[in-house]
């Protein structure tokens, strides 16, 4: 994706119509904006995110405001609320191998019934109804809002990541968003239960008595767990009721009632059902794409490979036959000569045999380009004749079903979108605050019960281990039944395999992230030998650094600046791991870094962060020598000029004192 331009009209500090060209030149990825504190830098970042994500955007000053109220308050104070505000983003991206130009406009105004928002999307100069009606789904599919913070962030976010202890949470979410290991966990639990049941057969009385005692402990814990779960269920219901009351208060606070509003729960449930169906179909389609389906795109290459494989089989046979044929032909000619065949006929036969050998020698001397197994041609033929047609038919089936579900989702969302809204009712503010406080208190009580449930789970695991040890005691003497022993052996092997599978899957993802983060960190760190390794615990996702002595280097031993560079490297590494070609936008990029760390960030990160980098700097950050360092990589600069008297920011070409 390349951001081509942004046009802001009466949004936040930006009064009137303001526009900036964002397209970078080759080898100059940076577009640099300069502005004083409070001059509109963060508002510019908010504008881009708001245009893309609407209500899902992570905005700097929304706080607890409803989306509609945020839009109302973001209209420039010097403009007419009835005229409203708008943000227009022009960008281009590759779709199906072709470059497509988009114009995304999000506008809103104060209408009779409150804030009225409109989203319009033009593709290649023409209004695109599909993208317009389903923009939320389109942008979530291309760049989900959940990972947008890897590409659009500010210095405070980096500081929080460096000092707030959220690294493991971010890494864990990134990895587990790619994996689905619940099926493996359920299978492992079932196998453990099966093994205990088999081991309990044929125990001696003393062991059986001990086993019954431990089972009693287990039963006691199960009762406590059941009670805790019942308490949790009651609290969940109570929290749900309070949550419902909170939502009702919020609805009364910001939304207008009506027949469609009364059907909101029904419509939401129906929409969730259709979306779940879509997710299931997309999951099946992804499984097909992860299999042999992509080979359909290279059928001609497969055909060539099959032909080449068959030809190389002929070459191998020719190499084997050459020596045997020469001896056979000499013997044949000698035999014919003894049979008194005419010299002319004998000469023709000899010539024919020589020609055949010559042809085979030429074939045998050809190189083996593939040098694959002799049955490769058969495998490719089976793939083209059977596997790929079946996969193609299944894919077409799924695509057809998916299109029908998408139509249902669009129709359902259209009905939800038509639900009318009502003006804000100020006297409901107190009721809303009370409902929120009651809901939060109940959630805290629920969390305490869940902590108890987790403690009981840990206790149960300890008793289960004790039970397993008793079951395994003197197993040879108690298990004379060969079939039972064999079943236990195989079950244990399967569990070992599942454990290795889980660890391997997680490790495969973690390893790539570790490499990308370490590479990014070493690129940014001014002490090249300070950190020689970065590892992530596949169970807890806690990052660990390795120092020059090969020992663990506590992150707390890094300076504040080094920790911020580490946090920046984590964001950079995760963004690279996502594989999405998206611009990077950084507000207040240098934050509280000291001069030496600033130098490395300016020289090593900003020019390489992405193919397009928007930097929003104060007059104390990218200035002087830092500006000179970044200038060769900068396509254009802008100054966000703020007029205090008019309360208005304008976008002007140039930079601080330039």
UniProtKB/TrEMBL annotation:
| GO MF term list | ATP hydrolysis activity
Q: What is the name of the protein in this document?
A: Rad50/SbcC-type AAA domain-containing protein
Q: Which PANTHER family match?
A: ABC TRANSPORTER ABCH.3
One BP annotation, GO = double-strand break repair
* Keyword Coiled coil among record annotations: yes
UniProt keyword terms in alphabetical order: Coiled coil
Q: What positions belong to coiled-coil segments? A: 388-415, 446-473
Organism per entry: Thauera linaloolentis (strain DSM 12138 / JCM 21573 / CCUG 41526 / CIP 105981 / IAM 15112 / NBRC 102519 / 47Lol)
Note the InterPro entries from the entry. Answer: DNA_S_DndD, P-loop_NTPase, Rad50/SbcC_AAA
Question: Which Pfam families is this protein grouped with?
Answer: AAA_23 (PF13476)
Q: Which residues form the Rad50/SbcC-type AAA domain?
A: 5-222
